[in-house]
Design a protein that fits this description.
single chain; alpha/beta; Rossmann fold; 7 strands; globular
């Protein structure tokens, strides 16, 4: 297995470590190896996460609406020598089933997508439809409480009040309900960046071992409900049951 390179930030490192560990456990339970896994990275852009997964042996199809992002993905894939493990297709949540096919994927990655689509419910339903029975979903969304906190600290108090009152904002309970409604069972949920996103890069680099210590701290607090609710990102790992809907 290829060596995992250090990502640029503690938060991205935490997310990738969590995901790879979850995928390892999921693959062991279902008796499927990375090379045998069909992965769709929905809204995967230029392929940052797809490249990391491909280096671990996964075959990844990036679905993204931007032709420029897909062109960058193609160049990145060639430069990394990952041809045959990553491909790009233009599209979005509305045509995901048509592009991928029903029950065609072992894993769907959907990071930072639900908060920008018009109908999160329809997007989640499409994801469930393309997953095979027992297939997994890795989902991240920006959280409401983090937005309220960041807006208030920036002095945008009226905006923070509107954000807090917004019924459509995605948080842990909302996401869990969305997934359960389409037959996806939440296996784990973590907050990403609750502390790390408050720490400057200079602080992390100033002391030997600080990066690893902060990474460990983030992992330790990531499932603590108060810290999780205040994290910028919520990461959910879910699995499709035998029947959907």
């Amino acid at each position: 297995m290829a060596e995992l390179r250090r990502p640029r930030s503690v938060s991205s490192n935490v997310l990738l470590r969590l995901l790879l560990a979850q995928l390892g456990d999921w693959g062991t339970r279902h008796g499927i190896t990375p090379a045998e896994s069909t992965v769709i990275d929905l809204g995967g852009g230029t392929g940052g996460l797809a490249s990391s997964l491909a280096l671990q042996g996964y075959r990844v199809t990036v679905v993204d609406p931007s032709p420029d992002a897909l062109a960058s993905l193609e160049r990145r894939t060639a430069e990394a020598g990952l041809e045959g493990r990553i491909e790009g297709r233009q599209g979005d949540t509305s045509d995901l089933v048509q592009l991928a096919g029903q029950a065609s994927a072992d894993l769907v990655i959907c990071h930072r997508v639900l908060e920008v689509v018009e109908a999160p419910e329809a997007a989640v339903a499409a994801i469930a439809e393309v997953l095979r029975p027992g297939g997994a979903l890795s989902l991240t969304v920006s959280q409401r409480r983090w937005l309220v906190l960041s807006q208030a600290l920036a002095g945008h108090f009226a905006l923070a009040r509107r954000t807090f009152a917004g019924a459509g904002r995605l948080d842990h309970d909302h996401i869990t309900a969305l997934l359960e409604a389409v037959g996806l069972r939440v296996l784990a949920s973590h907050g990403i960046g609750a502390l790390a996103d408050h720490v400057s890069e200079a602080t992390v680099e100033a002391e030997t071992g600080a990066y690893d210590e902060l990474t460990s701290l983030e992992l330790e607090i990531s499932q603590d409900p108060p810290f999780r609710s205040l994290a910028p990102l919520l990461h959910v790992f879910a699995e499709r049951g035998e029947r959907v809907g």
